[in-house]
Amino acid sequence: MSGLHHRHLAVAPDWLALYYRRPLEITRGEGRYVWDADGRRYLDFFGGILTTMTAHALPEVTKAVTEQAGRIIHSSTLYLNRPMVELAERIAALSGIPDARVFFTTSGTEANDTALLLATTYRGSNQILAMRNSYHGRSFSAVSVTGNAAWSPTALSPLQTLYVHGGVRTRGPYAHLGDAEFIAACVADLEDLIGHTRAPAALIAEPVQGVGGFTSPPDGLYAAFREVLDRHGILWISDEVQTGWGRTGEHFWGWQAHGRNGPPEILTFAKGIGNGMSIGGVVARADVMNCLDANSISTFGGSPVTMAAGLANLGHLLDHDLQGNARRVGGLLIERLRAVAAGSPYVREVRGRGLMIGIELVRPGTDEADPEAASAVLEAAREGGLLIGKGGGHHTSVLRIAPPLSLTVPEAEEGASVLADALASLG
């Protein structure tokens, strides 16, 4: 055990997880690579949990942070803040939500907490619909709408939450159905559920479930849900903390794969927009955002420094068409990984879109999740110079792959080659 690891254990909570048998101290990053304290280089296919969206040490972001910090670091939302207004204007325009208002927070958890406050206040109901296998953060309210037992440490809740089918396409009672039949069955389940409850405030859903293992329904499911929700006046909160900003390649926001009946009333975001700086936020239709009848501020949300970083990062993303790069390079990477996985009895499915890819592992010859195999591949990939993540529903058996959106084709090939060796090491 390293000295730093020993010191960590002496002061950190027991439930604060660390990856790897020998935890890694990352000391430097550049582009798609990071270096540890011993000077070893790794190709980063996880980006600080989908947060380093464009590149490590992106010059535009570094410059913006340095220049803003040299002027003023903090003022709070009690004062006018030019970078915050400018970033809010850009996000409102990109959101697709008409007459949009934007409130900045410091994390996705806080963004979802705010969205739940808005929805329950607007509707006068503390009942929330959420998806099975979902994850929405670690606050008291966020864990109460998280449909993943591994990340929901308490049964106590300020909300009454009911869980809906549909977030996982290839498992569960409707997995055997075709896409159209799957959607119809989930809609019928939603209709039936609402018929047995008091009026819910909102449905909160990740278009692609992140911690749940990069699972998603067929395109159009949430549009079909929307027809039911709209009849009952129920709001749709799209949790874009992991799917937003073009990561899926095909769309800028995950909700757009389900956009036949229009945008959500509330959209939450975080992670990638700050490229490592602490930014989260909520976009909502003006009447929903303005429904609160008490004062509220955010001491650190909308910090001049983080807003400057977000502006520079978003500008780089759009100017260099990183969404298009995610579509092109991600498409090549997922096909390469499917070819690699075809030879492994441990791989149940390679899924995803853009640069948001999951490899689900099972015990050979069964449909049973294999978290031990996932941990072994995580370790083997690290030994090969590649950092990946883990996730998955009932058991953590999915390898999560989400590199910065500037990933090149040679880097994609490098990562796929390391993963091929790591999977082969399972025997």
Kindly provide the radius of gyration, computed on alpha-carbon positions and rounded to a whole number of angstroms. Answer: 21 Å
Largest β-sheet summary: 7 strands, mixed
Largest beta sheet: what is the strand line-up? 4-10-9-8-7-5-6
Structural class: alpha/beta
Could you give the count of β-strands?
15
Q: Sum up the overall morphology in one term.
A: globular
- Please report which band the strand proportion falls in: under 5%, 5-15%, 15-25%, 25-35%, 35-45% or over 45%: 15-25%
Through-space gap between termini:
28 Å
Helix count equals 13
Helix percentage range: 25-40%
Succession of helices and strands:
HEEEHHHEHEHEHEHEEEHHHEEHEEEH
Runs in which pLDDT lies below 50 for 5 or more consecutive residues are none
pLDDT averaged over residues: 96
